[in-house]
Amino acid sequence: MRIFLLILTISFLSPGQAQPRQLLVPGGVAIIGLGAGDTSGYRFMDKPVLVTEIDGKTSALIGLPLSLKPGEHSIEKRNVEQVNRKFFEVKYKEYSTQHITITDKRKVNPYASDMDRILAEKKRKQKARTHYSTGAVDVNFILPVKGIRTGSYGRRRFFNKQPRRPHSGMDIAADTGTPVRSPSAGKIIELGDFFFSGNLVYIDHGQGLISMFAHLSAIDVKLSERIEKGQVIGKVGATGRVTGPHLHWSLGLNGNWIDPALFLEIEN
What we know:
This protein is mostly beta strands.
């Protein structure tokens, strides 16, 4: 019996899959164990948190925004009689700086005629990023595309010497046309050709866990389509505001973009 359980544990994660790792910094992930019968109703910054099994234990996964101040924070569950809180400590982290030269100056300083499109797309992105659905979630992710990780999450960026928001995801350099695969099962909740992001796809993995893939040369899925882990959703490209072909992958958790590397195998 013990041998069978050992084999089952080893084979639970196939090669290339990884469980999330905790990193208690802005942009990181908090993993908090939950007791039996105390697994629902918890919220962080007034948003529901993802609950799943990590290392065989029922746990809450909390996405920590880049703007979060270091110090003590908590998730909480309120009812008529009391408020239950579970605390965790967030440490300071300094992210690096990146200077990028964009040859298409319109992608840095859009024309006035571009703004209606940009603002409409911003609303669509916000709605997709904060989307929430119930149900079980497969958090054992696979790498969406093989390539060189060229961009660091959280890096402060300057486009043509002009400051912009910190990098909200992971960049993976690969040849145009390289297939991009879904890191986990989910549902397509947004897609299209966007001004800055080019061809992009949003996937709802469940319970506030959202993937966004940008700069694609092609989109191979349809809106509202349910997809499986490893299914091709598009191809690497250089659409939108880019300097060359690559995949931009953002990973959202309870409405916050977090470091996707925390859901992948550690690079050797």
